[in-house]
Amino acid sequence: ITIRGFRVNALIDPRATGCLISPKVVEKYNLPYYNKENPMWLEMADGTFSQGYGKG
Q: Which Pfam families has this protein been placed in (predicted)?
């Protein structure tokens, strides 16, 4: 899906590299929380946002 110009993937590609983005960024771009229990978004190298399950 595309949200405000960003392509958002529900799963993280383990081959991709990215960095954690803050909850403020998630709120700013109104990114949906697919994982409501423990949302963790990554900003990928190609500029897209992906979400996976946080561990620990």
A: Asp_protease_2
The pLDDT of residue 28 is above 70: yes
pLDDT confidence band for 3 (50 / 70 / 90): very low
Asked whether the beta carbons of 10 and 34 are under 8 A apart, the reply is yes
- Domain boundary assignment for the chain: 2-54
Tokens 């979400």 found at: 51
Instruction: Report which of 13, 9, 4 is spatially closest to residue 34, judged by C-alpha positions.
Output: 9
Residues 6+ apart with CB under 8 A from 15: none
**Mean of the per-residue pLDDT values of the chain:** 58
Q: Report the alpha-carbon distance of residue 27 to residue 17 in Å, rounded.
A: 22
